[in-house]
Design brief:
heterodimer, A: mainly alpha, two-stranded antiparallel sheet, 2 strands, B: mainly alpha, Rubrerythrin, domain 2, three-stranded antiparallel sheet, globular
Amino acid sequence: MHAARNIALCTKDCVCLFICPTGATDTENGQIDFAKCLDGCRLCVDACPSHAIYLVPSVYPEPQPKSEAVRKELFALAKSKVEQKALAKDLLQASNDPSFRQLLNALATSNHILAEDCYREAGFMLPQSETVKNWLQSLFVEHQDDQNFPKDVVAKLLQLL
Amino acid sequence: MDDMREMTVEELGVLCSNLQKACTKQQRAEEAQLFAELASYYQNREERRTNQDFSQLLQKINADLSQAYNRANEKAKSASDRGAMRSLVWGEKVSKLLKGLLVRYEKQKNGLFENNNVYVCEICGFVYVGDTKPKICPICKVPSFKIHPIQKEAL
């Protein structure tokens, strides 16, 4: 577990700079240097007067199992939202009207977010879960005939997760 | 999970962008970037269709509201899946709101946007048409810095 800073809460009291034994909190980009941060140290987390620093877990438990019936319904809803997003994008390409385009952009964005949330609750919340890893693994077979499929990207993900 | 083989490129792109966001929230920039690359592989394979009818949007949202949410809510309740119930509560509220927006647009056309801005909540998809965005999202209660304007593009 290493520390991370929520820059929106940070009030620049600098106590994290004083307390950090490795200098990991003192950086030019506002975020803590994860490579320097000591695993589980949490001195800065406890010292921060504005509660802007928290610990990021490195290991997560396997998520709660999902019922097949719920998963099916959420996948069906996601499909409908994705279709509405696609429809908005089709119409977007055909229109020159700035107000109509603004509405279509809002609809496409909103439906994208709605669909993402369905997948999250259908078992695809945690990238490190067995569900996600099995799915990533299945993509090699699924796309074996496609030269353009980024196999290296999927392999790297399976290695990192 | 056999039905995953029948997912469209649009659906797979959204699935990847969800996992990309999860990695960002875990401060895992490298994994987030890789999921983003996979998402763009799918997005690049999307094909745009011409001669689509705007009224299809209202038809689809009506079908969601009259059938899909009821069915999904029933299954989520009988499985005591409160996470799914949370998602369905937000999703149904946002869908009702989008339906209202489509109906208003059909009546008022561009008048709806005349002195108004358009905002979307990045967490739940809530859409606000008005002058100033709310301080917290009325649906998911996230603070307003996660509610973003949709620009009116000059063509």
